[in-house]
Fold:
Amino acid sequence: MIEVERRTRETEVKAALQLVGGEVDVETGIPFLNHLVETLAKYAGIGLKLAAKQLKRVDDHHVAEDTALTLGEALRRALSERGAVKRFGYAIVPMDDSLALAAVDAGGRPYAVFEATFTRSEIGGLALENVKHFIESLAYSAGFTIHVKLLHGFNNHHKAEAVFKALGLALRQALQAEEEAMSLKGEVKWR
Ligand SMILES: [Mn+2]
Structure:
């Protein structure tokens, strides 16, 4: 169990993460963000209890970003303890009208490519521009390369959820234990 707390003047986020499964419960005060992060954890097969609160009332931006940074830090710590993992994973996931692709390198190389557009500005308290910001923040704090591409879609809820399901399933593969480091360097550096 990895526990991470992140507190700034803007937010307070507490996360407890288990790589090998367990209960998933996310409460950020932003209903659609809860839904997306719970989807990510469930499909990734990780246990995650995460609570975030906004200390200074502004908008959803800081909570979304800091939730991603805290989850990423928990994943980074969990992986540095776990040792070798498969490292790479990918998935293409449909959700009715929407089809999303995600590919991950969970190997200490922070980078994010996000290609998806939305035709609504907000769902359930979450500005949809923060979906991209969330995934970028997660990639940088976890030390993962994450590519996400929405191949097509119409319903904005389905589009965002398909992205998080695909990312979750890609992570499920990438986080599987492996006998030796997936790198010609002989080890994966977690900075
Ligand atoms: Mn920001």
